[in-house]
Structure formats: C-alpha cells, structure tokens
C-alpha cells in the first residue's frame, strides 16, 4: 500500500523514524525486542512499495557529538535484519547524505548522537528534511519529544505522515479515552502519586472508576483517614489525593479505597505476609499489596467495564507473597470483554508474567509517551504531522 496516501512511494526516498530504544544486557544483547518487532510493518510497507528506505532511532541518552560503541544501533540492525529476512546495513555519519537504492533498507546510526537533535536545531532539521521525499513518523514511544528526527524533519520533509504503529497507538488511545464504551475504568498504580498526579487529575474528569494501587493507594488511604503504618506514601500530597477523590465524587464516580491489604514488617521477598482489614493496619506495618477482598471487588468491577486503561501494578508483584492483587487484576482484565489498553514498563512486565498479552486489547510501546497521553497532553511529534496534513 502507499505511505502517506499521496500516490506511490515507488522510487521515493522514505525516511522512517522508529523507536528502537530497546533494553540490552552488558554484552549488548537485546533483552526485549517488542519495539523492533513493532517497527517492521512500516518498513515492509515502504519496501513493498519500491521505496529507498532509511530508518533511524535514538538509543539511550548519549552525549551529542560523542559517539561511543555502547550508543550503537548495531544490535538493532542485526535483529531487524533477522525479522525482515534481509541484510540491514548500518550507516554512520549520515546527516549530509545517504546512499540507498529503491528496494533497499538501511539503518541510520543513533540519531541522538547528531549535534542539535535534542533541541531540534533548525539547521539540522533542514538537512534531515532534505534527505527524503517522504517522512514517516512511526516512533510513538518518542512522540512526546520535539527533536530533530521527530519534529524538525516533519517541518521540512516534502511530505510527512504518521506510520502504521503511530496511527494504531493513537487509534487505541482515542478509542479508550476520547470515545470510550462505558463504564471506563482506569488503574493507575505505582509507587508515587507525585509522578502521576497530573494523570490522576486528568482521568478524574473522565473515568467512571479510578482504581489506585501501590504507594499511590497508600496516599489515598491517608486521604480517607486510614492509618497506613510505615507504608510508602507521600504525606505532602494527601490534599491532592483528596482533591482527586472530590472531583470523582462530584461526577458521581468513585475512587475505590482498599478495604483490606497485605502487610509485612519488612520489605523483602521472604517477609511474612499478613492480610489485614484496612482499618487494622499497625504503626510498624508496611502495605505491600491490596487484600483479597479488595482484589475480588475490583476484579468484579473490571469485568463489568466497557473500557479499561491500565498503568501500574497494584502491589509488589515481583515478590510471590505480594503478587495476588496484580495477578487478580491482570486476570480480570484478561477475562473482561472490555476494550483494554495497557502501557508502561512495569505493567508490561506484569502482563508478560501472567501471560495475558493476547487478551489485552492494545499494549502500548510507549513509556513516557503513554503517560503523557494519559495526562491529556498533546504529543508534539503528532501535532506537527496534523499541521502538515492541514497544509
Ligand atoms: C522511551 O524509552 O520511553 C522512549 O524511547 C523515549 O526515550 P527518552 O525518554 O530517552 O526520550
């Protein structure tokens, strides 16, 4: 099919910005390749159309102008080659020109090593724009960054559009948040309210149930007047948590506060786990998971939901004694007929642990980008494409 729906890409120079920022071990082996696999459809589409294909991504956060071997996309070129079933040459120092023939694909070395990339320097942006006939932005995971290869090139390329992955991510998020089948339930969990306060406030104006977990739930328990002992919480954000509860109440929606919890005296895998009523937490207790009664109630709500947004495990699921809450939530999402969308590193780890990949409606490749969308922010890299499309 045609990229950017502007006629054939045959013989055209297509520049694809992907997010191939994948984790590696010390030996440089890719430990999790979801993003590489997710980049394949756009590349195959361009190759099939007979385009000369250039692909780039950042890897990590290198110092501009100082390329080190650990910054190299070489392991990604190898993996991409395996997935595409063809050799993917890696090209260094490519800003001033790239040699690539129609029907070929090359991977352009870590774009964040180029001077001016991060601040979207205009001179660099013009050069990037001149490298191609068509720019395809397919890096959802980096679309919250206005950098040279995500924003600048989109300003100057003759044609610029979203690739299939970016489009799918935006579609899934729009389906979940802008036009959801109700009830819409969101699970926002994780250790800190502070990192997710904007998300909580933004979702409080939209969702029917705002399920909190982890350290975030502890702060909400404080807001509800409960003792949480020595659990992780942010005492200075209790008023903010109250404000979120009030927004929800005013809309006739709710933030379910745990009625039981799993506690321990120490934070350790072998700590003794004790289930307690939420009103019985002692001063030396640490809450490490929601209790079975709470988990069952939440699971029942999730099964009734029309749409579910999931970010964050509700307990310390890495420890077997404190995984039940997260496991119950994961299975409830899997069994629910709701459209579900999940994102964030810990959430993806939980999805993998409980083997529910196939039952989640959409798993986002975005980390920070996914969170910014939940915050209700406009993604700059998407915004420029919209502007270009409007002419
Ligand atoms: C990510 O891993 O979330 C993206 O690749 C963005 O990376 P960054 O936070 O370094 O911009």
UniProtKB/TrEMBL annotation:
The keyword Transferase applies. GO terms for cellular component: cytosol. Coiled coil: none annotated. It catalyses: (2R)-3-phosphoglycerate + ATP = (2R)-3-phospho-glyceroyl phosphate + ADP. Transmembrane segments: none annotated. SUPFAM superfamilies: Phosphoglycerate kinase. GO terms for biological process: gluconeogenesis; glycolytic process. The keyword ATP-binding applies. Its EC number is 2.7.2.3. (2R)-3-phosphoglycerate binds at residues 35, 112, 145. Keywords: ATP-binding, Cytoplasm, Glycolysis, Kinase, Nucleotide-binding, Transferase. It holds the Pfam family PGK. It is found in: Cytoplasm. GO terms for molecular function: ADP binding; ATP binding; phosphoglycerate kinase activity. Its main location: cytoplasm. Substrate binds at residues 19-21, 35, 58-61, 112, 145. ATP binds at residues 196, 318, 344-347. It comes from the Bacteria. Belongs to the phosphoglycerate kinase family. Monomer. PANTHER family: PHOSPHOGLYCERATE KINASE, PHOSPHOGLYCERATE KINASE 1, CHLOROPLASTIC-RELATED. This is Phosphoglycerate kinase.
């Amino acid at each position: 099919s045609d990229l950017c729906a502007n006629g054939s890409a045959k013989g055209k120079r297509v520049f694809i910005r992907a997010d191939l920022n994948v984790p590696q071990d010390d030996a440089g082996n890719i430990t999790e390749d979801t993003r590489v696999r997710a980049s394949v459809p756009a590349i195959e589409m361009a190759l099939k159309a007979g385009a000369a294909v250039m692909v780039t991504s950042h890897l990590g956060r290198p110092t501009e102008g100082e390329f080190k071997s650990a910054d190299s996309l070489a392991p990604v070129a190898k993996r991409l080659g395996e997935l595409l079933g063809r050799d993917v040459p890696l090209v260094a120092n490519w800003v001033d020109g790239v040699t690539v023939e129609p029907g070929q694909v090359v991977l352009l070395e870590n774009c964040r090593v180029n001077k001016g990339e991060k601040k979207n320097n205009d001179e660099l942006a013009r050069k990037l724009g001149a490298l191609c006939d068509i720019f395809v932005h397919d890096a959802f995971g980096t679309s919250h960054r206005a950098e040279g290869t995500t924003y600048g090139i989109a300003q100057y390329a003759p044609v610029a559009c979203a690739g299939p992955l970016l489009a799918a991510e935006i579609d899934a998020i729009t389906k979940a948040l802008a036009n959801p089948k109700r009830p819409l339930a969101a699970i926002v969990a994780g250790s800190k309210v502070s990192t997710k306060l904007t998300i909580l406030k933004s979702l409080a104006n939209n969702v029917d149930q705002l399920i909190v977990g982890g350290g975030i739930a502890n702060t909400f328990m404080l807001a509800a007047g409960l003792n949480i002992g020595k659990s992780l919480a942010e005492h200075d954000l209790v008023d903010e948590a109250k404000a979120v509860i009030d927004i929800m109440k005013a809309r006739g929606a709710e933030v379910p506060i745990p009625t039981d919890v799993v506690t321990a005296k120490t934070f350790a895998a072998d700590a003794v786990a004790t289930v307690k009523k939420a009103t019985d937490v002692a001063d030396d207790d640490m809450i490490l998971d929601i209790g079975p009664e709470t988990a069952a109630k939440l699971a029942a709500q999730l099964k009734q939901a029309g749409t579910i947004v999931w970010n964050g495990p509700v307990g310390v699921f890495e420890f077997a004694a404190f995984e039940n809450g997260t496991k119950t939530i994961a299975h409830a999402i899997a069994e629910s007929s709701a459209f579900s969308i999940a994102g964030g590193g810990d959430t993806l780890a939980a999805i993998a642990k409980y083997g529910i990949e196939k039952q989640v409606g959409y798993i986002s490749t975005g980390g920070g980008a996914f969170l910014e969308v939940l915050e209700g922010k406009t993604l700059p890299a998407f915004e420029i494409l919209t502007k270009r499309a409007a002419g």
